[in-house]
């Protein structure tokens, strides 16, 4: 009796799982894994005034890694918590809050945030952060 050919199995990675993997890579400060989780033409947007050193729009994985270098040089986290994940289609919205200290001034910012990410082909294609930019600006402002 002839055995049926085995069918390759494909594991469907959900958009929410992609975001969880990105957050795990960020926590490990694993630049290779962060870059691998992004499309080649990713747009990473964190709006804010010039006083916020990490604010801007970053295109491509190399630019996003530079964002993390600037961000990590500028702030020290006391608390970071993703409280809720909402996924619909290829979009994942994450709601959370953070408390961090600006390394340049020693001031803290309590910052609720919402992150909106679009996933394409199992990778982050678009990232947009919505946060209290006034609190962030004030933490970086000179005395």
Distance between the termini: 83 Å
How many DSSP H or I helices? 4
The fraction of residues assigned to DSSP E strands is 35-45%
- Principal-axes geometry comes out as globular
What's the Cα radius of gyration?
A: 18 Å
The poorly predicted ranges are none
User: In the CATH scheme, what's the topology name?
Assistant: Nuclear Transport Factor 2, Chain: A
Helix content: 25-40%
Q: Which architecture does the CATH hierarchy give at level 2?
A: Roll
Q: Structural class, from helix and strand content?
A: alpha+beta
The top level CATH class name: Alpha Beta
User: Strands across the major sheet, in which order?
Assistant: 2-1-6-5-4-3
- The helix-strand sequence is HHEEHEEEEH
Number of domains: 1
Major β-sheet, in short? Answer: 6 strands, mixed
Number of strands: 6
Mean pLDDT: 93
Description:
This protein has a 6-stranded mixed β-sheet. With 143 residues, it is an alpha+beta fold. The protein has 4 helices and 6 strands. It has helices spanning 15-28, 31-36, 61-74, 133-140; strands spanning 38-46, 56-59, 75-88, 91-102, 108-120, 123-131. Helix content is 29%, strand content 43%. It has a single domain (15-140), classed as Nuclear Transport Factor 2, Chain: A (Roll). The model has no long low-confidence stretch (mean pLDDT 93).
List the helices and strands and how they pair.
Layout: H1 15-28, H2 31-36, E1 38-46, E2 56-59, H3 61-74, E3 75-88, E4 91-102, E5 108-120, E6 123-131, H4 133-140
């Amino acid at each position: 009796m002839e055995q049926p050919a085995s069918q390759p199995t494909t594991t469907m990675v959900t958009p929410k799982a992609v975001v969880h993997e990105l957050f795990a890579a960020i926590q490990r400060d694993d630049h290779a894994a962060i870059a691998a989780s992004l499309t080649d033409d990713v747009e990473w947007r964190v709006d804010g005034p010039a006083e916020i050193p990490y604010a801007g729009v970053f295109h491509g994985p190399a630019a996003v890694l530079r964002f993390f270098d600037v961000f990590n040089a500028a702030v020290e986290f006391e608390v970071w918590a993703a409280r809720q994940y909402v996924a619909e289609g290829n979009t994942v919205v994450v709601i959370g809050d953070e408390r961090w200290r600006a390394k340049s001034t020693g001031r803290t910012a309590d910052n609720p945030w919402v992150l909106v990410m679009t996933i394409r082909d199992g990778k982050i294609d678009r990232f947009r952060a919505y946060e209290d930019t006034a609190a962030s600006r004030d933490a970086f402002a000179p005395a």
